[in-house]
Amino acid sequence: MKNLILRGVVVGPVQTNCYFLKNKESQEILIVDPGAEPDRIIQALLTLGGKPAGILLTHGHFDHIEAAGELREHYHIPVYAAAEEEKLLLDTTLNLSAGWSGMPCSVKADHYLTDGEVFTLAGFEIHMLLSPGHTAGSCCYWLPEENVCLSGDTIFCQSCGRTDLPTGSMSEIRRSLHKVLDILPKDADIFPGHGEQTDAGFEKQHNPYL
Q: Which residues pair with 54 in a beta bridge?
């Protein structure tokens, strides 16, 4: 992590990992999966210091997006997501916010990304890797210069996201695990949407869903 300071907080009732990626040089910060508790996220960002530059969503479930709208307005920053996730982000039934959280919410991203798209934000080169299975538009964000992958609910430590929710597919998530882990070098650090950090080499050897 040559230019990256990575921090985060665990938010909401489903214990979602919300990550902060701070560029040491530019002092810009990316917010990944702000799933709840916007006031707490804002306080954590004040402690970290720097200037928020964008929000990255790995997928559209309520526990990854609920604070996105408020943070976008507070910091006047754009939201990024996979193009394939647009419908789920906007549909409060599909994104489970209507039935599970009791707080229906939807997010219209400012930028919808295509599979393999490379973009620069906060001084980082970011590759969007579409990884359907948990949802149809789930994705991972790969920062090759920092050797870091934000895997959302695609890759967990020795596991993967559930596939029994709207637009989910076990066959798709198995393909996605192979796809992403074939791209990542063995020493790449993986930061999932829930649970502890892992790395690509460990998952290639020990993930039972491969």
A: 30
Q: How far is CA 177 from CA 64, 171, 185, 208, in A?
A: 20, 10, 14, 11
DSSP assignment of 105-135 equals -----SEEEPTT-EEEETTEEEEEEE-TTSS
70: left (phi over 0), alpha (psi -120 to 50) or beta: alpha
CA-nearest of 10, 63, 5, 64 to 30 is: 5
pLDDT tens readout for residues 103-138: 899 999 999 999 999 999 999 999 999 999 999 999
Paired sense of beta strands 139-143 and 124-130, if any: antiparallel
Sheet with 148-152, strands from edge to edge, namely 118-121, 124-130, 139-143, 148-152, 189-192, 198-199
Domains and CATH numbers, the chain: 4-206 (3.60.15.10)
Give the residue among 66, 75, 165, 137 at the shortest CA–CA distance from 106: 66
Q: Quick: pLDDT tens for 59-80.
A: 999 999 999 999 999 999 999 9
Indicate whether this model's pTM tops 0.70: yes
pLDDT in tens, 79-91: 999 999 999 999 9
